Amino acid sequence: MLSSFESAKILINQSQKILITTHERTDGDDLGTALAFRDHLVREGKSVTVAIVGGVPKQLQFLPGSETVIEDIDSTDFDLLIISGCSNLQRIGNEKIINLEVAKLNIDHHRDNAMYGTVNIVDPAKSSVAELAFDFFKYTEQEISPTMATCMLTGIFTDTGSFMHSNTESSTLRAASELMSKGALVHTVAKNTFQGKDLSALRAWGRALENTYFDENNKVIYSVITEQDMIDLGNIPQSAFEGLVETLNKVPEAKVALFLKQDGEVIKGSLRSELYKGVNVNKIAKIFGGGGHALASGFSVMGKLTKDELGVWQVV
């Protein structure tokens, strides 16, 4: 990994016009990492653009620098593309960015990363991309500003489920501790990510919990939100169901937690498990063309969620 850090340092030093991106419908880890890099590179005098399909979710707009994020690019005049948390280029969701013929710095912790970068900083053993970014900045002896600290702590905090997931290692807590000493406030991160639920989000959770079932034979707990549910719930924020599948995963009898939500013509699925339950949900997600981690993965499939005459859920 140290050789990758050195190669990344050289690549950044050689670049002046830098584009940073991550996957569409970004999350706290990958956006936090992207914005930490942005702050560092701007202070280094680089020209920096952050472009993410879908923009910044409401609950992450507290992150410093999030107001600079754009959803598309007009120019292709860049000499480096930094990609945060994308196991493959297609996850970016923007063909203009995907097809850029520039050097690429790929920073990720997904086990199935395609290693598509000119330089790849990829370590599946890390809790989050943000912890990996923290290691990189420590290696390069860069000053970590309060802005960078807030962004990286957000990434670590959200990807470890507020330090409750099994991917929380001693190195994770040491990184979080140092980021707090640099100015990051963990209570501010918690308030804006896991604790920030407005009334519409609580109603959405109520519907999702009402639509929760337990498959005794397969030890799967699952919740379903249909197209009609979304119509009934009205104008709810994109982040309304954030943390729901993690809550389902707390049921001790269940080996797997699954949340399915209709989004137009696409069904989006989120899977969770725990180390002691002995299930690799990444293998399940891959069956449906998705991916992620052994204990946290997702997928998308075309179709509509509906019940047959026996009340069994199916995709049509």
Task: Characterize the structure shown.
This protein is α/β, with parallel strands linked by helices. The chain folds into two domains: 2-193, inorganic pyrophosphatase (n-terminal core) (Alpha-Beta Complex); 199-315, Diaminopimelate Epimerase, Chain A, domain 1 (Roll). Helices cover 34% and strands 21% of the residues. It has a six-stranded mixed sheet with strand order 6-7-8-9-11-10. A five-stranded parallel sheet has the order 2-1-3-4-5. Strands 12-13 form a two-stranded antiparallel ribbon. The chain starts with a helix and ends with a strand.
CATH class of the largest domain: Alpha Beta
Given helix and strand content, the structural type is: alpha/beta
Query: What's the number of extended β-strand segments?
Result: 13
In CATH, what is the homologous superfamily of the largest domain?
inorganic pyrophosphatase (n-terminal core)
Low-pLDDT runs of 5+ residues are none
CATH-scheme architecture of the largest domain: Alpha-Beta Complex
Q: Helical proportion?
A: 25-40%
Short characterization:
The chain is α/β, with parallel strands linked by helices.
What are the main properties of this structure?
inorganic pyrophosphatase (n-terminal core), alpha/beta, six-stranded mixed beta sheet, 2 domains, 34% helix, 316 residues, Diaminopimelate Epimerase, Chain A, domain 1, globular
